[in-house]
Write a structure and sequence with these properties.
By secondary structure, this protein is mainly alpha-helical. It is built from four helices and no strands.
Length: about 80
């Protein structure tokens, strides 16, 4: 169970909502399955997140990003 910084979660959800038609996005939403994002969409979003949060996401971490919650947790970990 993740402990999310609500500001990070809110901002990540806002960014994802610009790229998907999904009605609801929460920490359990899967990027490809639920949000129907392509791999190019995911890479664009990661680039946006890196800029937004001033982090660099290593490729090995990108592979772990299955859900919105995974993305938030990785961003939080990189900001520490």
């Amino acid at each position: 169970m993740y402990m999310f910084d609500q500001d990070v979660l809110k901002r990540v959800i806002e960014l994802f909502s610009t790229m998907t038609e999904a009605e609801e996005i929460n920490e359990e939403s899967e990027l490809i399955e639920d949000l129907e994002l392509s791999s190019m969409d995911v890479m664009f979003l990661i680039s946006s997140l890196e800029e937004e949060f001033q982090v660099s996401v290593p490729e090995k971490e990108i592979r772990k990003m299955v859900t919105v919650g995974d993305v938030v947790q990785i961003i939080q970990d990189l900001r520490k």
